[in-house]
Give the backbone structure.
Amino acid sequence: MSSEQTQLSAESASVRSSVEGAFTERLAVGLQELKSGAVLCDVVLKGAEESDVGIPYHRVVLSAQSSYFRTMFASDWKESSQQEIQLHNIPGNTLRKLVDFAYTGQIPVDGDDVQSLLAAAIFLDFSPVAALCWDVLEKHMDVSSYLQAYLLAKLHNNPRLAEKTKRLVLHHFVQIAQSAEFKLVNAETIIELAVSDDLTR
């Protein structure tokens, strides 16, 4: 390939990248404007609380980001024809954060709501959000949250984190066993931990 062809190819790639970036940004801004103005919205989602105020969304946007919503809206589920849908197992604030991610690609995650967001992201199949929640959870662990992280990892089938947090729980078992959270753990899990060869006594 000649130097002139190489230059033209590089320029073409640069233009394509610029156009794609502009397209993505325009699409994101346009979708947010449509949602904010409730323009062409065709479904209202409400969270678990009876007092939760529903917010209008676009089925196609939700379906593009979540196989759960895609199945709900494109199947014979009763929700496929409903104008208002209440998700009884997801708090309203969590639902709004998660669904807004479908429009912006951004979501704030902190230690206070990471568990709620993780459970909802797994249930609704927002896998990028679930991955972010796991990352936040792992990076902000300390002795007070090792047990909680272990139980979450087991519950939501994250074997790598479950193994890591189990070792941490076993290493700090005496301290963790005195916590209020430990008293809420089921007997099967307590026995599993107590008989482990890796338990620090």
Remarks:
- The CA atoms of residues 151 and 157 lie 10 Å apart.
- The longest strand covers residues 43-46.
- The first helix runs from residue 3 to 36.
- The radius of gyration is 23 Å.
